[in-house]
Design brief:
By secondary structure, this protein is an alpha/beta fold. Helices cover 50% and strands 9% of the residues. The protein has a six-stranded mixed beta sheet with strand order 6-5-14-16-15-17, with helices on both faces. The protein is globular. It starts with 5 loop residues before the first helix and ends in a 9-residue tail after the last helix. Residues 649-656 have low confidence and may be disordered.
């Protein structure tokens, strides 16, 4: 164990049950403190339970026993585990798997091999070892390959918890080695049959049985979640990110997954070659910064003032942020301070590292430049602020963040600057109050909009509507035959969020017909059957009700005074979404409640989330006059809460 990340520390404790031994240490402020140092035994427990058990053997059994689903697991019983397909065995480790609700059980990534490949591999392993001296020698070679590409890599990687993705690919060599033993397992079966029947019959029987027991079974189980035919989401979404942007824009992306599709769209499809795609993961390297200062396709060089020598590896990799001045500093002055080679601008106690003397920066806004470039529409000129306030909260900024600030400072609103929706908030540099949603990216604008209900920035309904309804392509994501893996499912959350945000803004502007059309299109693209309804559909139902309420007010009527058959169509659409969400969450809660107590704690957060959604659905339907539906929801909710209360000391589930 080595990571000091607070989230990792908590996971270390969860996996290894750490109590530790107290030691005295000095913190970064030079103050003494007492820390609990994990013991050698606790380190070993983490090694065996997490690094070997969860991060190797789990992947091994995925390949030779079965896989629960394609959702990344973090140690719970619902996602990412290995299974056998034999319920009484799986229920020992994961709880009853025979009554999973559709939202959990109907996953194409669920593959059950009934341990047959694993058993055949063990038979091949023993057969090879027992095949005389030559067999033992060959066994040693395969075993060495198996260990060195499996357990040895576990030791080498020393993975910390909460990995950003599943790491099964790291051990592919080990699985190939075991596949050799599976092949030899056919000979083991043949050898077994030969003891009771003729060689020809034994050969045929061994071939047929092992053929159907392993490769045919695995092909039938794996086909649906390995079939990518008809799925063009990566290609089309890459183009959509580019189509979001105004001409000659700069778009910051997070990493490989949200960058390579954009590069493909530009390089192969020739889509929007005027846009500069800037990968923030690569922007931490000197060679990539140098590339960004060159013209590519139809995109001009990025306005980076730092010279190659000033960003060479090992120089300004991080810039410490100190709050010495206790006042805001002009961004241009701050960057000149970082660029300076004057020893007074360096921290001698940190190997002469660069630093900023203030955590508060500001960037003066040239209003005329912002209007001239189209960054701000002329109708919004009164909303333009005098300066962008940049409040740095951490103790340092990384090289890519330093370059982002340099680009903003030197750009002077000449080129549109965007952050892809997939960029993490830790890379926003606290500029999110100046974001404008236009599709799959946020545009940096000199208009301040405080976050509301977790949604950052403002919405340009005109641009976003044109992008989402007219320009974007969706890669067949709503085709029932097309398989959406976890990455695509996660992306669908951004899709729903964008549609709902746009609909809300259109309702505010009184364009309810357009808002309803947007919500309908969202439901068409991301239906419950493809991606089970989640929190964003709660907002969708609310948006339908808001649109209907707006239309009723225009007619001078109230919900209570209207017959059901006279209500706007949006009411029924909202009710349909609510009923589907109620069904989904009710089934999930009933499943959680059916689990044995020893498994209940593992799903406590999931159950609380489902309870919260039901509570909110009851509140929303009541708020918008759907009294009967609200009563129905609350009756179901209270019935399930009555089961939970005795177990939790009458504690009603609260918002997670």
């Amino acid at each position: 164990m080595y990571s000091s990340n607070p989230e990792h520390v908590q996971e270390y404790k969860n996996w290894a049950g750490i109590k530790g031994t107290p030691i005295q240490a000095t913190n970064r402020q030079g103050e003494p403190e007492t820390l609990m140092k994990p013991t050698f035994g606790e380190n070993l427990q983490f090694f065996f339970t997490y690094q070997i058990g969860y991060m190797y053997l789990r992947y091994f059994m995925w390949n030779f026993s079965g896989r629960q689903n394609d959702v990344q697991g973090q140690g719970g019983i619902l996602n990412g585990n290995w299974i056998t397909g034999i319920n009484f065995l799986d229920s020992i480790r994961l709880g009853d798997q025979s009554h999973l609700p559709p939202t959990l059980g109907e996953n194409r990534g669920k593959n059950a091999y009934y341990m047959l490949p694993f058993i055949l591999g063990l038979m091949g392993m023993f057969f090879q070892y027992q095949s005389g001296k030559k067999g033992k020698q060959d066994f040693s070679v395969v075993m060495l390959l198996f260990v060195m590409t499996g357990l040895a890599i576990v030791v080498y990687l020393n993975q910390d918890p909460l990995q950003p993705r599943e790491r099964d690919y790291a051990y592919a060599g080990s699985f190939y080695a075991f596949a050799i033993w599976i092949g030899l397992g056919v000979l083991a079966v043949y050898d077994l049959f030969q003891r009771f029947s003729k060689a020809t019959i034994s050969a045929i029987a061994a071939t047929v049985i092992t053929l159907f027991a392993v490769p045919v079974l695995m092909a039938s189980e794996n086909w649906d979640d390995h079939d990518r035919s008809g799925r063009y989401t990566a290609r089309d979404f890459g183009g959509d990110y580019l189509q979001t942007c105004a001409p000659n824009a700069i778009i910051f992306t997070n990493g490989d997954n949200d960058t390579f599709p954009l590069w493909y769209a530009q390089e192969v499809e020739g889509i929007r070659t005027d846009i500069r795609v800037c990968n923030l993961s690569y922007l931490q390297t000197d060679w990539y910064i140098e590339q960004m200062k060159k013209k590519y396709y139809d995109s001009d060089p990025l306005p980076i003032k730092f010279t190659d020598d000033q960003v060479v590896q090992g120089t300004r990799d991080i810039v410490y942020v100190l709050d010495q001045l206790k006042r805001p500093v002009n961004l241009n002055e701050a960057l000149e301070f970082i660029r300076s080679d004057d020893p007074a601008t360096k921290l001698q106690q940190a190997d002469n590292a660069a630093f900023l003397p203030s955590k508060q920066l500001y960037y003066p806004v040239d209003k005329n430049a912002a209007l001239a470039s189209g960054t701000v529409d002329s109708k919004d000129d009164s909303l333009i602020v005098d300066k962008l306030d940049i409040n740095l909260t951490g103790n340092y900024i990384s090289k890519d963040e330093m370059i982002i600030l340099d680009i903003i400072n030197n750009n002077k609103w000449k080129r549109p600057i965007y952050f892809a929706v997939t960029v993490g908030r830790d890379k926003y540099l606290n500029l999110q109050d100046y974001f404008q949603a236009e599709g799959f990216a946020y545009r940096l604008v000199p208009i301040k909009t405080k976050a509301k209900e977790g949604q950052i920035g403002r919405v340009s309904s005109k641009l976003m509507y044109d992008n989402i309804i007219n320009k974007f392509k969706w890669g067949n994501m709503n085709d029932p035959k097309v398989y959406l893996d976890e990455n695509n499912m996660r992306m669908s959350m951004n899709v729903r969020n964008n549609f709902v945000r746009l609909a809300d803004q259109l309702i505010i502007e009184g364009k309810t017909d357009s808002a309803i059309a947007v919500l309908d299109r969202c439901n068409e693209l991301v239906p419950n059957k493809k991606v089970p309804y989640n929190y964003f559909n709660l907002l969708m139902a609310e948006a339908y009700y808001k649109a209907a309420q707006f239309d009723m007010h225009k007619m001078g009527k109230e919900r209570t005074s209207m017959e059901v058959n006279m209500l706007p169509a949006a009411v029924k659409k909202g009710n349909d979404v609510v009923r589907q969400m109620v069904e989904n969450n009710e089934r999930e809660i009933l499943y959680y409640l059916s689990l044995e107590p020893k498994f209940r704690e593992s799903v406590a957060d999931d159950m609380q989330r489902s309870f919260y959604l039901l509570q909110e659905l009851g509140v929303i339907t009541e708020q918008f006059g759907e009294k009967d539906l609200s009563k129905e929801i609350n009756e179901k909710l209270n019935k399930m809460i009555s089961v939970v209360q005795p177990e939790r000391g009458n504690t009603v589930p609260k918002r997670p």
